[in-house]
Each structure stands twice: as structure tokens, then as C-alpha cells.
């Protein structure tokens, strides 16, 4: 009898995804081939801003193996419209069109100008090299603040400005609070540009069946459902029903695969034009230019406070770099942080304002945390500045400003209704976990000795909003789609289960997590549950995976569909046992008659009855199958305390993370190992953001950090092991009590690291530290504090 | 990320390699582990028309004693150099530096000879060899010759090797017991090249420095000796003040690059700190 005795939610079930991944049997987009396929290669602009004077593809056609080649103008008639943005955040947003290939002007290094198809990847590359494109360089716009000045050179001349939009939010009487507060601290931070570097670059295979007019796109994406509707309806102008999009195994995304790309558009059109499948695999060299970049904000944050450091008001002004065009959700990324510049702290007034600006750089869009790491960085740095101003300890200043502790919803100054939170709880635990007193003692000792290597301790007590998102809130923010998700559960005749879900994982372990939920709901062993996702022909319409939404939205849909299975099964069980439904008790997969527990039916037994349909109650349809669509009422709000201890070599500027403690509250935990994996990975990515990674352009708009040799993604040997713990305060937003854990680490960690660097050098008079805190930057900050050169 | 078309031939011996290079002319290139050459070819920054593969010339893969020297065959993998018992006993500096090149994958494919022949001023082995006054053994159309490290490195990716030359071995001295050594590699990630590196070989005598040889990595177009430091140290007391003063000469005569890892100014300052630390460590060994 297939019945699990013990609950599996909350246990470390081994990830079902792993056997094929660790034995190399997983199939990624690049592993796929179709008979007769052609390889595609794009010709990318070497210039950041230039008029295209000519594109001659004829030399490419002379290269052996090249089958076809096109310039942007050759394909201009193919597009129903430009690659759209789904998030026009204001009515007057400026949204210049971006097409899969540029025709007249290129506006960032890496914008496509031509495309070559060949029998082999090598021939495609040879062909692309042979294309002769000529350019007339134009002035390059790089600096965001310069770009906003009157008379600035323009990225899009016809717009008359480099500003795309300004979006504002105000709660309370901000001016009055700032006018009367005895303490105001004003800080300016630069959140540097990053290049998301998923292990697998983007890749795809496009197929076309002419007789049926059907397209199939297999693509390394986080968003097969969104790609389908956007590509079909807006870019290709074909019926959505004629396009099937599949996401096979996807080797990481981190937001960079929330994209409706030029390559996807081109491959589909060219598959139709040539009648042959078209394959494209990005390489690292093109990926760093063409996959979207991220972060890149200039932040001004002000805190108004009482003399003792109690915060009364928040005022934030951002400039956010959109790059050369608006991508799918690019303009909305800062809005995801807009409500969080108050962290988990109280206050009575709040103002936020963000201007999106165009520059001649790779367009930006979502990257793990999207908007929320930037917000957390600003407030967690600023609260330390406030602590210094009013002479308080960083722990004390946080404790005195925390929102009231609560198991239920409470309002925040940013205008959110936080589901639940006990902020002192995570902070207490983190202090213990990191060994705070011992670290401070060590810090004192080193300062007294005047060691070359000093240590510092930094805090980040963060809160985030995720579980994107309540559709009505998205509507009010002018996002073009909803935030719900869907699941369909089918119990097969033998009691095995297939769950079809609308979210689309790329490493997060949805199959395992969802199986655990279903196992408890239906009493079916985890191994007897299959989770199907990432194929628009199989999965229910869904909204895909990003924004830590898969469990708190998609998982809730799974749970609700399971409830409906139980509801239907109860009818059949009652009928077979000849009792009323009310006389049945249901415990994990088994209905038993109250008072006569031996008279019972299990879900597999009922599933078989539902399949044979020999004896179903009146009005009950055959098959044990149910669907649910869940649209959350509110976001979920993970929070926690991260404490970082660094060692700074004051002679060289080198920073090493000595210890890192992460205590998060992500609500109910389904699989602790998966959760810890997300935390560790996120923290490491955040440490990378604080210490290592930075996209650097030269004055011509050439990307200098164009390979992993100098775009410094750290490896295992460069990061510490991380001490991880939890508190559990169930979310009140959903019945599973789950919050979300996909982004906590990247949201929390950068300010903890930078605050630690500042703390390590505070006795030398250092108060400011730009990020990433490279050795040279740290060294310069020390020189400056010493009043030396630099 | 796919190289331009090229031909490939495997050399059966050093002489065969020399002959093949002669046969195929200027556009032919030797390849050993491929870890410097192939990345350049994939970026199409190098486009040799013929690759002559010496990677499998196993008779060049050895580390052995040769009188008062140690000889390292050109195709010895970096990892084997790092793990060599002979070097651990007689010249741990070379093994140590080889062990800090790149990551395990790089060290298992990349050859010691390839690193030397490539002539990259950011690489660690060349600097160490320069500080050790090593000898390079080269076979070419005119037979075998030996070139001192000082004369071998000539410029950015430029060495004394002619188009038909094969580097067969490198000879380094056995260090005496009174000789201390250090290699300070300053970099951000373990896999990275040095932002600045410093090799120090210091002979002690009664509390003072008898002789010091200091090599600098990534401080100019080629590996260089910090001659100002060496001069200041000759006969100097082995005490912190004197070492720091001598280290202050480190940037003299250098022309470090400015790049995303650090400005020239920063590299100059770093070289002082690292030279001082290298001296302190060498003297403590
Ligand atoms: C990711 C990465 C990280 C690295 N990090 C470091 C580092 O931290 N420090 C460091 O020092 N190096 C580093 N390297 C460089 C690495 O050490 C060298 O690439 C490698 O040792 C070169 O040896 P090879 O056998 O691969 O040479 P190849 O690439 O095969 O050849 C390099 C050059 O030398 C020539 N050549 C090769 N063998 C001979 C010979 N016997 N005679 C004459 N010419 C020859 C070739 O024609 C070519 O021009 C790194 C490399 C990579 C890929």
C-alpha cells in the first residue's frame, strides 16, 4: 500500500533533480540537435554608439558552409513589433524600440547588426567574421548624471532626453518630518553594474513545421510561458497557439534568463525562412555583452531621526541605468525595491523617487533580488551612518528601530503590509552564531597592537518582499501581466502522481519541494510523484520562475490543487464505504470512517476507482484530477540578520571574509537542505557583489571586463563557509506559511560585507567605501583617511 | 569562441618539431598544454595556420638533479613541478610558485615550458626563474644553446626563442641551506594572475644579507629584477627597518600596467609592501 507514514515536509529529502545532473545525463539546450539544423551566429557591434553606414553580408556567403546571411534591414519586414517591455512604469515612459537586429544605429557594444547561418558552428563563426559592417561613430553617453544634464549627448536623438521615466511614491508628510527632525543623515552610494554569469550561457534550438505552421522553441529560459505570449503576439505576429516553448534543463538564470531575446526572435524567423532548424549557443564572449546587465544605480538616501537615533522619515532618490533600451521588466526593477528603503524599521514618512536613464551600455534588467538588494544596501549602509552620527552601536540602532514584533500583518513606512516578523529573534541568533563578543575582543586586540591586518564586523538586518505577486498590485504598478500561478495534479490509475506546474525551475529544486508538499497532502511517496514544468504544451498556463515566487505562489497552487483532489476523492470514498462525507476522517492519503478506522480507502484506491469509473457517485466525473490557480493577496516578507566579519590588510587593501552568519526567517521550511543551498549560494553571490564583480566600460563604451579573466566571479576557493541558521515565523499570506528564499542571500549580504570593511577601518577614520571593495579601493580609502595621496 | 581554421601536426621528437616548424614557416606555432595559446586562438587574437603539438613529448616531462642544478623538462605539467620531491628538497621556491598558478585544471594541463615560452609578464614562473638566474635550454635548427633568464625575456610575450626554436628544459640552481626564499603573489581570486608578484632569494650571513635577488611579476612588459632593492640590500642588516627601506626601491625602473585590477600607482605601492614581506619571509625561512 502506497502510503507514507511520516510527514516529509520539513525533512531533507534528497533532491530528485540531482542524479541526472551529477551523472551528466541532463540535457541542456546546447545538448539538443535536430536533423538538418543550421548554426546561427550574430555579428555584434564593436561600437557603443554609431550610425551603421553599410552591412555587406556577401563575403560571408563565400565562406564554405555558410547557407545564409542577413543584415538588420534584410529582416526588418519580419517583425510585428519591437521587443517589448512588459513594465511601462509610468504613462509618459519613453520606450524607444529595440528590434532583434539594429538597422540604422547601434546604441551599445554588442547590439546585433547581422546574422549568419551555416552548416557548422565553426562555419557560422567564420561567416560572421567575414561580414563587413561599417560604422560612423557617434558620441557615447556613459555617465548617468551627465546624461541627465541639459545639452547632454543623447542615446536616442529623437527622444530629446536620456530620461526614460521618473516614478515617485510618498507616504506621510515627508517635508514636515525632515524639517523638524533634529538629525538628518544624507548618504550617496553607487551600486555598480554587474554582469549576471549563469554557468550555462543562453542557448536555443528553433524548429518550424511548415505544413502545420507550427514553431517549437527550446530555449534556456526562466520564462517559457511569457516568452511564448510575447514572441508570438508582439514580435512574430503569429497565433500564440502555433508556438510551443520548452525550457529544458537550464543551467542557472539569476534573472538573466528573464528575457525575450533577439536570438530567440531571429532563430524562429530564420527557421521558417530556411525551412531548417536553427540552433544558437551563446558563448561567454557574446554573453557578457548581450545578456542583460544588472544593478547600476546611484542612490541618495536621507534619514530623519530623533537625537537618540529613532528614525522618523526616509527620503530616497535614485538614478537607475536602463542601458540603451528598456528590456522586458527593466524599468520595473527599481520599483521592486521602492518600498524597502526603510528596511524592517519604523517611521512616519517615506518618499521614494527613481529616474530611469538611457546610456550607451548593455541594457539592464532583473538580477537575483532585483531592486531589493539595492534598497537593502542603501538602508543598511545609511543606518550605520546614523549610528555613527548619534553615537550608537550598530546593533543598538537596529533594535531600537525595528518594526513591532508580530505574528500577524503590520504596516511599514514604505506602505507595505508585512506578513509577520520577529526581528530581534534573528538578530540574537546571528550574534551568537557569528561569535560576536569574541570577534569584538579580537578586533580590540588587533587595534591595540596596531596589526597590519584589522578586522571589522558588519550587519545587515534586512527584510524583503517577494512571492511576485498579487495581480492587483502589479496592475497598480502598471506591470502588463498578472502574478498568479497554476498547478494541475493528476493521480494516475496506479496511485502515482503527475503534477503539472506553471512555474519553470532552473536549478531551484521545485520537483523535490513540490513532491514533498504533495506527499504530505496525498499520502503518496515522494518517489511516486513526477513534476512536469517548462513546456507550454504540457504545463498549465503560468507565470514562470523569478522573484522567489515559485513556492509561495506556485507551491500554494500545488497545495490547493491537492486539496481539490482530496475533496473529490472524499466523495468517491464515502460512496464506496457507504457513509456520508462527514463521517470520513482524512489523514495523509487515507480516508477512514470515524469510529471504525479499519474501514478505509486510500488515495491510490480511490484513483483506481476513479479511473475504472465502474461505480462513481452521482454527478462525479471519472479521473482523479484537479487544477488550481492561486493569486496571492499579499507579498511574502522574508527577513533576517546577516553578520559578516572581514579581515582587511591595511597595507594592501585586501579584504577576506573571516566569518559569515546568516539567520533568516523564510517562514515554514519544506526542505531544509534546499533552503540552505539557496541561502549559501545567495550569500556568496552577494559577497561577490560587495568584493569582486564589477562591469567596467572605458570612455568609448568598450566593455573592459569582457571575460571571466577580469570580470571577477569568485570561485569556491575565494569564499568562506557560511554559518546558517533559521527562525520560523510562518507567513500569514498563504496557508503553507512559506515566504521565499531564492533571493534572501543576495539581498542581505552586500551591505553586511561593506559595513564590515568600514568597521575594520573606522579607527583610521574611514566612513565611506565604494563597492566592490577591491584592494585598490580599500587601499585608497585608507590613504585618504590618513590624509595621504590618492 | 572557435579558432580560425588551422592545420595540426604532432611532433614525434624535439628534432621533428624543429623540422616541422621549418617546413611550415612563420605561421606555424608550437602548442603544448594549450592553456595560453588556445584562449588566444578562440578569441581569434592568435591565428596560426599550423599547430605543431609537442604536448606528448614525454621525454621532456621530468624534474631531475643535474649536478648543482635541477633540470625541469619543458613539457612537465605545472602540477608535477609543484609536487616535485627534488624541488621540495633543493629549490622549494619553484615548486611553491608553480603550485600557485591558476587552478588545478590549469596546473594539470599547462606545462612549465609553455609558461616560460609564452613570456607573459603577469605569469609567476618567469619571475621566479629570473630571480634564480635560471638557464633555458633551447634546441633550434643550429642545434642546442643555453640562454640565461636575464637574456631570455625580451618584451611583452617576447622571448629569445626564434620561430624554429623549441624550449627543451629549464635549469635552476640548488639553493644552499643559508638561502631563504619567498614568492608573494597578490591577487583577488585564487585563479587569477598576480596583480603584482614578488620572488625573493636571499642569502644570509651573520645577521645581514649577503646577497638578494628580487624578481617582480606584472610590473612592466616583462618579468624584471628589482635592482634598486638588491643594491640597497647588499650587506644590509637583516632587520625590519633596513628591509623596509630597501623595499622602498621596488618600483624603481618599473612600468606597471593600469587595468581593471589596479592602477600603475597602486601596483607601485603594492610592490613595496610585497617586497618587504617577501624579504621578511625569506629571512625567516
Ligand atoms: C584560467 C587560467 C589561469 C591561469 N593563471 C595563471 C597564473 O595564476 N599564473 C601563471 O603564471 N599562469 C597562469 N596561467 C597560464 C598558464 O600557466 C599557462 O597557460 C600554461 O602554463 C602555459 O603552458 P601550456 O603548455 O598550456 O602552453 P601553450 O598554451 O601550449 O603554449 C604557450 C606558448 O608557448 C609556446 N610553447 C609551448 N611550449 C613550447 C616549447 N616547448 N618551446 C617553445 N615554445 C613553446 C607556444 O607556441 C605558445 O606560444 C593561467 C592560465 C589559465 C587558462
Distance between the termini of chain A: 74 Å
Note the main sheet of chain B: 5 strands, antiparallel
CATH class of the largest domain in chain B: Alpha Beta
* Secondary structure category of chain A: alpha+beta
Total beta-strand segments of chain B: 14
Share in helix of chain B? 25-40%
SS summary, helix count of chain B: 12
For this structure, the quaternary state is heterodimer
Name the CATH superfamily assignment of the domain at 32-138 and 197-290 in chain A: Aldehyde oxidase/xanthine dehydrogenase, a/b hammerhead
Number of strands of chain A: 28
Q: Given the C-alpha coordinates, what overall shape of chain B results? A: globular
Label the structural class of chain B.
alpha+beta
Q: Which descriptors would you attach to this protein?
A:
heterodimer; A: 790 residues; alpha+beta; Aldehyde Oxidoreductase, domain 4; Aldehyde Oxidoreductase, domain 3; seven-stranded mixed β-sheet; five-stranded mixed β-sheet; B: 285 residues; Uridine Diphospho-n-acetylenolpyruvylglucosamine Reductase, domain 2; Uridine Diphospho-n-acetylenolpyruvylglucosamine Reductase, domain 3; Enolase-like, domain 1; five-stranded antiparallel β-sheet; four-stranded antiparallel β-sheet; 34% helix; 27% strand; globular; binds flavin-adenine dinucleotide
